[in-house]
Every structure is written in structure tokens, then in C-alpha cells.
Amino acid sequence: MRVLILGGDGYLGWPTAMHLSQKGHEVMVVDNYFRRKVCTELNCEPLLPVPNLHQRTELWRALTGYSIRVEIGDVCHYPFIARVFREFAPEGVVHYAEQPSAPYSMLNREAAAFTLINNLVSTLNLIHAVAETDPACHIVKLGTMGVYGTPNIDIEEGYLEVEYKGRKHTFLYPKCPGSFYHLTKSQDGDMLYFYCRMWDIRVTDLNQGPVYGLEINGSFLDDRLAPIFNYDAIFGTVLNRFLVQAVAGIPLTVYGKGGQTRGYLNIKDTLACVELALLNPPSPGQYRVFNQFVETFTVNDLARKTQEAGKELGLQVEINHLPNPRKEAEEHYYNPTHTGLLSLGLKPHYLTTETLIEMLTLVQRYRDRINPRHILPEVSWRLVQPGPQNSPGDVQAGLMLASG
Ligand SMILES: NC(=O)c1ccc[n+]([C@@H]2O[C@H](COP(=O)([O-])OP(=O)(O)OC[C@H]3O[C@@H](n4cnc5c(N)ncnc54)[C@H](O)[C@@H]3O)[C@@H](O)[C@H]2O)c1
Q: Which of 71, 149, 269, 329 is deepest in the core (most CB within 10 A)?
């Protein structure tokens, strides 16, 4: 299959490219290096050094014989992405090319505006490029479980059947995003649903939970092929952050009570889910939604598991409850359905102590690169009022030190 990966330089995009290319698919990656540039700007460099896409694809070819084509450019620039579609003629597209951080989207007006424009215009351009070149091309878009929020009823897979005054109708499941980023992911889903109904394109929206992990296929052939792995409070996902904190001897930063429950998955399962979705496309006009995670944990569960695994390696891991910089329920009902990908054949990897030890061991190799300044959350969800401690600039920026 010819697969185009938008956002192919990212944490998920690059491993997906390697995975699909070694499965024999013809792969092209597109990226504008937004993630790298913003990490440099915010001084939150990833744990492992990451060569650029040209260097990584050359190394990949030298080590495996598989080639991955590269195009550097912005998906929001329509002439660029339309040309890529005409030249590569993909049968499937994986859309990762969005601004993926909730704290970044809450940083200030500029970051919110960038998130809005980038995430919606990239999706719009993708839809138009597909419609213009080959409406049968299957769009696999990465969504997030965060679009649902934490309702006090079970979360279904994308849709909800409602009975009202004796009549029934099936709606998209109501959305209640908890950050501006999550709001844009709700909106791009609505846009895809709209064009499925209007133009009969076919779409799979993978509502994914937070991903953890670094190991691909047991071990890297070369560490320079590792994905971008952030552990800072803006771009690091929670378990990845905890692993680095454990190795650095910094108390694990649990926000608030730590009862926040989410559905998690190993990066290996992300790759399997994306491939399963590509190999089993929906019908024309179908907007198919899968909830992509394998098990649920509270933040406290993750902290305790990291602590236990750390003990096995002789690490003294402390847990610290910080004032919560986010506005979210810290104890709540959470029961999301996730049967779609299992029924397509997903064989989940669960979060065992062995898995955590493997990841901690890998992080230990890069211990010297850990910058403790990246650890504490600095972005607040609340509107910070001017006061003696906050300059008007801080209010505009929405910045605060959660540790007080
Ligand atoms: N990582 C997770 O835990 C997770 C969980 C749920 C959903 N997701 C979703 O998966 C997708 C990928 O996440 P990730 O963690 O790999 O993020 P990432 O930032 O590492 O990858 C996204 C890539 O897209 C690129 N990009 C962004 N805008 C672009 C544009 N306009 N043109 C070209 N390239 C562009 C970035 O430079 C980056 O390399 C995102 O849509 C995110 O919302 C991720």
C-alpha cells in the first residue's frame, strides 16, 4: 500500500514510518519540523538527540534496505500538499500533523491561535487534497480520547444512540474537551464527519489515549532512529515524564489528587492500530471512530507503578502532589468502550513492571541529558489576574508556577 504520513518526524510519525516500511508498504513522510522548532524555542529539547528526516531515512535504508521518501513542507500550505498528493498518489494517509500539546495550546493567545489554524487548516487541506486526487484514499486521523472529557456515563466508540420523546437517533458522542488543543481535535473530527456526509470520503478517527514508550520492535537498530521523546511539562506525556523524573531523582509530579483516569497504550500498540485501520478501510462516506487505548489508569496508579519498577533498579522514587495547573475533575467515573480495534485483531501490550524497567533502563543511558528545569508545569489553565506576583505579561501569557 502507498501510505503518506503527515507529521512523519514526530513522536508517533517516525516510528509509524519505520513500522510500515518494514512491513513492505511504500511510505512517504511529510513534516515542517514545527515540533523541533518549538522545542528549541521553548528550550525543552527531547531526551535523545534526533537527526533530521533526511539523515534518519538514509540511516534506515543503510541498516534495513527499506526506503522512506521525505518531503519537508507545511500541510497548511495547499499548493505544497496538493503537489505531494498528485505525485505520490497515496492509497492511505495517516494524519499526525497537528499541534499535539494541551499545555502549549493554553500558553497564550498566539499559541492558541496557532493550534486552531494549524490543526484545522491541515485537516481541511488534507480533505481537499484527497477529494481532488482520489476520493477513495483512506484518511486515518489521530484524534484523542480527551475530546469526550469525563462524562458520568459510559463513553461509546464515537457515536451515541439517543431515545427522546419516543424516537431514536444516533449522534456523534457529545464532546467536552478539557483544553484548547482538545477542542481543535473535536472540531477536526466534526469537519471530517461533515465531508464524509457531503463527499463520501472515507475516514477513520482514532481517538487515542496518552501514549508511552520508546522501544520499537524490542530494541532500536541504532539510537539515532529513536523517536522524539519529550519529558517536559509541555510536550511530554505523563508516563514518559514520570520515567525521566524517576531516573533523575526528581519527585514524580502528580497534578492535584491524582485520581484523573485515562486510557493508555504502548507506542507499539499505536503502530499496530494504525496499520490495522489502514488494512481495513471503512466504506465510502463512513466516518469510523475507534477508541484507541488498551487499559485505564489513574495518575496515582502510574506514579505507584513507576515507583515500584524504580525500586527494582535501586532508584528512590518519591511522589509529589502539586497544585493542579489544569481545570479537570480529579476523581470521576470513567468507563470508555474500546472494542473496535480489538475486533480488527489488535494484540495489546500491557503495562507490566518488566516494560517499565526496560524503559527506565533506556532512559538511564541518557541521564546526563536530563534538564531538571523542564520538569515543573508552568502553564495554567486558569486566567491569571494581575497582582504583585504577576506582571501583565504573565497574565497575557497565562503563565504561572504551579508549585507556587
Ligand atoms: N502522543 C500521544 O500520546 C498522543 C495521544 C493522543 C493523540 N495524539 C495525536 O497524535 C498526533 C501525533 O502526535 P505526536 O505525539 O506524534 O506529536 P508530534 O508533535 O511529535 O508529531 C506531530 C508532527 O507533525 C508535525 N506538524 C505539525 N503541524 C504540521 C504542519 N502544518 N505541516 C507539517 N507538519 C506538521 C510536527 O512537526 C511533528 O513532527 C497528534 O495529532 C496528536 O494530537 C498523540
A: 269
Q: How far is the CA of 218 from the centre of ligand 1 (A)?
A: 23
Ligand 1 pocket, residue 269 CB under 6 Å: no
Picking from 100, 111, 30, 21, the residue whose alpha carbon sits closest to that of residue 59 is 21
How many other CB atoms sit within 10 Å of the CB of residue 206? 24
Which residue in 396, 254, 400, 275 sits closest to 347, CA to CA? 275
Q: Which domains does the chain have, with CATH numbers?
A: 2-151+174-211+267-293 (3.40.50.720)
Residue positions annotated with a catalytic role: 144, 181, 185
Within 26-80, strands assigned E span: 26-31, 68-72
Ligand 1 touching residue 366 (CB < 6 A):
no
The pLDDT profile of the chain, 404 residues, written as one tens digit per residue, is 999 999 999 999 999 999 999 999 999 999 999 999 999 999 999 999 999 999 999 999 999 999 999 999 999 999 999 999 999 999 999 999 999 999 999 999 999 999 999 999 999 999 999 999 999 999 999 999 999 999 999 999 999 999 999 999 999 999 999 999 999 999 999 999 999 999 999 999 999 999 999 866 545 678 899 999 999 999 999 999 999 999 999 999 999 999 999 999 999 999 999 999 999 999 999 999 999 999 999 999 999 999 999 999 999 999 999 999 999 999 999 999 999 999 999 999 999 999 999 999 999 999 999 999 889 998 999 987 666 555 544 444 444 333 22
